[in-house]
Amino acid sequence: MTDTSVNELPDDDPILTTRSAARLLGVAVSTAQQWIESGRIASWKTPGGHRRVRLSAVQKILEGNTPAPETRLWPAAMAPEFQCVQNPTYPAPDDESRRLRALAASGLIESAPEREFDRLTWLATRITQTPMALVSLLTSRRQWFKSRVGLDAVETPREWAFCSHAILNEMPLIVEDAAEDERFKNNPLVTGAPYLRFYAGFPLYDKDDYKLGTLCVLDQVPRKLMSEQIEALRELAAIASEEIKRRGLIT
What we know:
Blueprint: H1 3-8, E1 15-17, H2 18-25, H3 29-38, E2 43-45, E3 51-54, H4 55-62, H5 96-106, H6 115-128, E4 132-138, E5 142-149, E6 155-157, H7 163-166, E7 173-175, H8 188-191, E8 198-205, E9 211-219, H9 227-246
Antiparallel strand pairs: 1-3, 2-3, 4-5, 4-9, 5-6, 7-8, 8-9
Helix pairs in contact: 2-3, 6-9
């Protein structure tokens, strides 16, 4: 966008900084910078060399009215944690390579905490009476928590992630007693802090139906969920997925 075209825009179309655009989009500043530099968000430079955008350009992204760039062009997708690991020691879906590219393009990893997701994890603990709940996202190297209740850690190695198993299927993964489950009984999260025994994870989807992670609840004692609780968690996971899609985070 040239300075002439900027001046021709109406005065009721405010000028935004990169940080302001990122805040409106619900992504990290670095992600907004990538979108701006790639041309996905129309911008121009001030005499001081700072990028500026119009509110209307940001609204087009939120409304999904701009062409999606090729995921392979995104600098984030070149980071090692968004590349498939050869012979992984954890289960991975058949579309893992495409799933990782979608996750990189989403801008969710390392993004700031957001009330929309924090409300969902809080509700999940209340519905199930469990002490812990997470919105967990899976790169090739780690599971990173976009939102968490009752857990101090912000991430764990991917090899430890119960959620790696949860994204293999459409149905939720419910582990009533991890200490009695061959897949998890030797997991460091079971044998050491936080000494997990119960897990229920529900996949989270982007607009192309890639499973980026899960909404999950956890406990330090074995337990079962009632059918009503399972359905409620399924709805919370659907809301989380819709929130991601609504923002146009996933390209």
